[in-house]
Design goal:
By secondary structure, this protein is an alpha/beta fold. The chain folds into two domains: 228 residues, TIM Barrel (Alpha-Beta Barrel), CATH 3.20.20; 63 residues, no CATH class. It has 14 helices and 15 strands. A six-stranded mixed beta sheet has the order 3-2-1-9-10-13, covered by helices on one side. Strands 4-5-6 form a three-stranded antiparallel beta sheet, covered by helices on one side. Strand 4 and strand 5 form a beta hairpin. Helix 10 crosses helix 11. The two termini are 37 Å apart.
Length: 373
Amino acid sequence: MRVNADLHIHSPYSMAVSRFMKPEQLLASCVNKGIDVLGTGDALQPDWQKCWQLYMENNDGVIIVPQCEIEDKKRVHHLVLAEDFAQFDQLRDLMAGKCKSFETSGRPHVYLNGEEIAAFAHEVGAMIGPAHAFTPWTALYAYFDSVPACYGNEKIDFLELGLSADSSYGEAIPDLCDVPFLTNSDAHSPNPDKLGREFNRIRIRHRRAKDVLNAIKKTDIEMNVGFFPEEGKYNRTACTRCFTQYNMDQAVQYRWRCPSDGGIIKKGVFDRSGELSKGGTSCPRPPYIHALPLGQIIQSVVGASSPYTKKCDAIYQSLINAFNNEIAVLLDVPVHEILVINPKVAEVISAFRSGTLNLNSGGGGKYGTFSIR
């Protein structure tokens, strides 16, 4: 069977996360969104584990995969997936004495390097890979030029691309050829423009967390779905204060300081990927499907200040009522059927499916934008 999986979210125990990130609200959002498999987020946090216990069986048919994100001593973030919470209890015990925040932080800072954390994760039977690997902050390629430079002799089980990259950004990097790519939301809110904004369509035999992990190991990933990379807020090299974009020669010339306001010029994912891919040969990858959150589409056609206005919500609900869930609307329902419900929304969906959107790239911490050609 084919399922849609979002395997990276957070809980209210992490910083800047909505207080509405509760299991019951997350599961309801999964049903509306069309997410069949959900990572729990923050599985090392004992109280968050307890929150999930009632929902491991009573879960509206959503497969729950215990998951957490860890920050290492170099500030690199790692995504860990496991079959059950007991493995995270074991992992926490192995890292005891190397972390002061297991009880207080959903995304703990651990005084170990990537190789040591990966070794512990593998010891308990979990899977591990770099989170949002191309992001210029707290990510693998922000600090290292290769996987072994971070993980040493430990292999990674997958690599999460992040919102500012698609498969094309990593397919020619030599040490990633045999590494599955994941696309996840990293959601801090259960709202449908955040949860499932990136996801993986995978093939599994049984509706169990174990089968989801096995599908990743066997690379039974049929497609990755996510943002146009240009929409990501770190896609292009840009000033982190005024967001003016620069090419690499200019950034070097200005010594990575914006000549307009003195802000830091942050190297974008597009340029970083180009550096890492030089001389590499592209390896085959599953299709990467670019999509926009339905709420964002509705906001743009209505001209609203937010996707959460009453007018936007009414249009959103009419589409969900007609076609069951958001992912079906974005990827699967014929455009002529969407046209009956809302012609303007149908026009945008037709444009991104056919690749005829105008994209204004983001950078320096500012998201990119789109318009119809």
